[in-house]
Request: fold
Amino acid sequence: MTTTLTLRRPDDWHLHLRDGAMLRAVLPETARHFGRAIIMPNLVPPVVTAAQAMAYRERICAALPEGTGFTPLMTLYLTEDTNPEDVAAAHASGLVHAVKLYPAGATTNSASGVSNFDNVRATLERMAGIGLPLCVHGEVTDSDIDIFDREAVFIDRVLDPIRRATPGLRVVMEHITTSDAVEYARAQGDDLGATITTHHLVINRNHILAGGIRPHYYCLPVAKREQHRQALVTAATSGSARFFLGTDSAPHTDANKLLPCGCAGCFTATNTLSILAQVFEEQNALEHLERFTSLNGPGFYRLPANTDTITLEKSAPDYPDHIETDDGPVTVFDPGFALTWKVL
Ligand code: DOR
Ligand code: ZN
Reply:
């Protein structure tokens, strides 16, 4: 039986760090294990200009525990007023590694997102020209589309038309949740990547809704049927370069989760690697874990893989069930089974 696992240091290709007290509390949870992360720009107000991304990067670096080598990879929030030249300059300077598309109203702090795609065409064309990836929150927002169908409908009605209209645009389908998204991603060329979260590999919609409602499992896109979870596990553990880890670890205080209208997001930064090792082990796919956590993402983003390593051993990890912040506690994602891999 395998009892230790050494991997190139992982990166997280989709992470919410927030700001202020929350940033200070959650950043060490990621920096402990990960080398780099793509930092989501959905602050209030959102990170829309290069100057804002630069200032946010400085706040993150100032909040890093002493001696950590973690590197934040910044993104810009795409709005209908985004200036293509600002985006291109931010990319050329090495500051910005992706632009994030939120359909207006799709999720937390997405009000400034895109409603009319004609108004972002010039930016998308500029991005295609310079190879700057577009990270896409792939859900339609139409109230008449069932929430469980919003990802599949988005692929047909929005994503595929944008890609056809913008040849060369490099796209990351973020936090995919359906077999439809897996099949679409598999059928495309290497200008398309897809991130998969930790939580979508272990929960389906029953975990949220059967036997009582579990707000800590509510996130967007919402977890789907078991057959979709299985398609995600097959994709993640396949070793295919198309799929890589983006945790979408999204901290909200318990006070903001446990409300009549609670916030969407699962906080998985603390125990992601223990959970993933177990998921891959159960699939007899431990030899593909490093591709998913540490190699496929840098390959897509055209960055070198990390050169240092982390080691996991076969023993129960110990971590708190919540993280204290000056705004109140944040509950750590509960995978619902006992974990057996610990990061040393
Ligand atoms: O569950 C989610 N939480 N999905 C998102 O798209 C946003 C995120 C957040 O920022 O809380
Ligand atoms: Zn997210």
Remarks:
- The longest strand covers residues 71-77.
- The chain has a mean pLDDT of 97.
- The domain at 4-343 is CATH 3.20.20.140 (TIM Barrel).
